[in-house]
Amino acid sequence: MGTIVILSNNGFFVTPEKLGVHSGKSQTFGRFRSLNCAFSNSSFSSASFELSRFRSCSKSEHMLQCKSMIRSVISKKSENKGTQLGKRENVGMRKRFSLRLRPRLRLLSRRLKRVSISSFLNDLGTFFRKNVIGVIVAVALGLCYFFLFLTRTPSPKVVPYSDLVTSLQSGEVTRVMFEEESRRIYYNTNSWRVEKDQISEDKSLVNAEDGNVVDSVETGGIGRRQGETVLNVFRKLMRVQASNPKWEYSTRKIDHDESYLLSLMRDTGITYSSAPRSLIWLVRSTVATVLVFWPLPLFMWFLRRQLSDANSHVKKRTSSDSMVTFDDVEGVDTAKVELIEIVSCLQGAINYNKLGAKLPRGVLLVGPPGSGKTLLARAVAGEAGVPFFTVSASEFVELFVGRGAARIRDLFKVARKSSPSIIFIDELDAVGGKRGRSFNDERDQTLNQLLTEMDGFDSDMKVVVIAATNRPEALDPALCRPGRFSRKVYVGEPDEEGRRKILAVHLRGVPLEEDSDLICSLVASLTPGFVGADLANIVNEAILLAARRGCEFVSREDIMEAIERAKYGINDRALGPSTISKELGKIFPWMPSLMGRNGRRLDDLQGPLGYQTL
Ligand SMILES: Nc1ncnc2c1ncn2[C@@H]1O[C@H](COP(=O)(O)OP(=O)(O)OP(=O)(O)O)[C@@H](O)[C@H]1O
After folding, report:
1. What top-level branch of life does the organism fall under (predicted)?
2. For residue 558, how far is its CA from the centre of ligand 1 (angstroms)?
3. Ligand 1 pocket check: which of 366, 374, 428, 537 to mutate, most ligand atoms within 8 Å of Cβ?
4. pLDDT band at 319 (very low <50, low <70, confident <90, very high)
């Protein structure tokens, strides 16, 4: 079976079978239009007619007839326009390009439409407002560079003083100028004039070729002539500046030799004069100095800020205004007992000295995140009634070597002065990690300083250091040896009773629809593995949900949804009720009997806990 090949407008070869398949309206239109392009003389309808004939040919397998038809069409076309084929190819190529380009252009225009000028200007304004100083500095620096670029002049050749004397003696010097307030002497020679003349000749030639009338270099004029564009004038300015040094040579004068020089010049009849330094030169040198030294004030400011921060942070944290007491911390009874003992020692309630005991210098609170380590430390501060210095260990991590150590020194100095006092270091692992594991000298120095300070307490100096960490295994062993953080207190996950007590603490002022004890017991039973921070979060979420509903009381549903959110995340609603009901089923085995298979209640009865949404 023969094949008819039709060149479509986008360069694909289409068989009649394909044509048969593509019978959709738009595709048919596309193919017909292609044909119309190929036979531009025939009209759209005639082209479609031709195409239908091709299709019928392929179906009836009268291939020879079809071939002859194509040949006749082509020969007819070639008769009509002999050179049309090449042109058509070009047109096809152009069309192909336009077809590829068109969607891209459309996309671009759509994007451009979305970018409105006003929003762009708004963004720009916001950016400028946010970075005012940066923008001002950038603009100022840019202007400085532009000024230097505009006023640049080629400097004369620097020669030894003896060259000037020799040139004067040989009569080569044409003009001399002494610069006032400096020792510089500028002079020109005969050869300079020749070069200058050549340059001016070259310039006039170049300008004649351009067709522009430009002042000669000789006159030094750079004004705009009639018919000249601003760009040309700018170019001219640049060219003149680049190639027209006013003086050929410069040298430094030797002290007490002026009289000899002057007599020499008078004898040879050379023109000499003196002039002050040009204003441009002064401005240029000032601007250049600014450009070279502008980072210095920035660096000084940065350094000053670092130093002032380092000295002020101890003062900032001296106030013990936190009103947390041991009653606010629940579920961590063992840790509480240990810390209460230390508070009692600090307050003098327990006379540990009588039996020859020493006050522990350091207490390390260890436990998972959110278990209440920081809260315990704050409770110590609230109960002890002594100055309490709290600091996060990451604040000792400094850019400059030695700054962290200095901060530790300052902290302990102030704490010692206000003895009895407590220092609390949160996230101790930030500086207390094992030494020698990295090339970070700064961190090692800070840790060394901490170790030294903890050794440096007198036995009767009542300063206790409490530190908290989630990663005790990462700490340097030297920190944990007796005499430093000798007392390690584990603040773990609370048990069910602990969770109930913690919830009671956080539900203290919350208006509940139901009995608080019942809610606490229910939530405590549903949240194994939760720490204090999780429970605090559940209570807060429940209050937010109630507020969202516009209610004045927190209902059981709010609390249950808050638990769902804490457990499964906010978006995972599909998991919600069934999962919770499964869990409730585990805890209260009689509960599923009151529910259908899919967790929905079969009757309108309330469950024993009155939780209806399950
Ligand atoms: N035992 C607890 N009793 C009452 N509230 C608690 C308890 N534990 C945690 N919370 C609540 O969780 C919040 C965060 O706890 P805290 O900052 O003390 O945890 P942390 O153990 O120091 O965590 P991290 O190790 O991440 O610093 C507290 O402000 C408090 O509201």
Report:
1. Eukaryota
2. 23
3. 374
4. very low
Q: Which residues pair with 463 in a beta bridge?
A: 421
Q: Which pLDDT score, from 0 to 100, does residue 535 have?
A: 92
Q: Which of 330, 364, 371 to mutate to test the pocket of ligand 1 (most atoms within 8 A of CB)?
A: 371
Token code pair at residue 461: 């100096």
Residue 443 above 90 pLDDT? no
Q: How remote is the CA of residue 372 from the centroid of ligand 1, in Å?
A: 3
What's the complex ipTM? 0.97
Convert the pLDDT of each residue in 570-588 to its tens digit. Answer: 665 544 555 666 666 666 6
d(CA 491, CA 394): 22
Per-residue pLDDT for 362 more than 80?
Answer: yes
CA of residue 549 to ligand 1 center, whole Å: 28
Bridge-based pairing of strands 487-490 and 362-366 is parallel
Q: Do strands 249-252 and 184-189 pair parallel, antiparallel, or not at all (unpaired)?
A: antiparallel
Rounded to whole angstroms, what are the CA distances from 280 to 148, 223, 288?
10, 19, 12
**Dmax of the chain from CA atoms?**
129
Residue 125's pLDDT is 86
Q: How far apart are CA 25 and CA 520, in angstroms?
A: 70
Tell me how far the alpha carbon of residue 532 lies from the centroid of ligand 1, in angstroms: 6
pLDDT digits (tens, 9 = 90+) for 506-553: 998 888 888 888 888 989 998 888 999 999 999 999 999 888 888 888
Pick the residue whose CA is nearest to atom 17 on ligand 1.
374
For residue 477, the CA-to-ligand 1 centroid distance in Å is 26
Radius of gyration of the chain (CA): 46
Q: Where are the beta strands (DSSP E) in 297-413?
A: 362-366, 388-392
Alpha carbon of 369 to ligand 1 centroid (Å)? 8
Which residue, chain included where needed, has tokens 């209902």? 555
| 95 CB neighbour count, 10 Å cutoff | 15
**What residue's CA is closest to ligand 1, atom 12?**
533
Identity at 342, one-letter amino acid code? I
d(CA 71, ligand 1 centre) in Å? 90
313 Cα distance to chain centroid: 27
Atom of ligand 1 nearest to the CA of 378: 18
* Nearest CA-CA partner of 426 in 462, 383, 372, 345: 372
Say whether pLDDT at 591 is over 70: no
User: Which residues contact ligand 1 via a Cβ below 6 A?
Assistant: 329-332, 367, 369-375, 468, 470, 502, 505, 532-533, 536
Q: How far is the CA of 534 from the centre of ligand 1 (A)?
A: 9
Task: Give dist(CA 304, CA 311) in Å, integer.
Answer: 11
Nearest-CA residue for atom 20 of ligand 1: 370
Read off the pLDDT band of 444 (50, 70, 90): confident
Beta bridge partners of 179: 275
* Global confidence as pTM: 0.50
The region, left, alpha or beta by phi > 0 then psi within -120 to 50, assigned to residue 488 is: beta
What's residue 512's pLDDT? 87
115: phi > 0 → left, psi -120 to 50 → alpha, else beta; which? beta
pLDDT of residue 540: 92
Q: Please, what sign has the CA dihedral across residues 538, 544, 546, 548?
A: negative
Bond into 482 cis (ω within 30): no
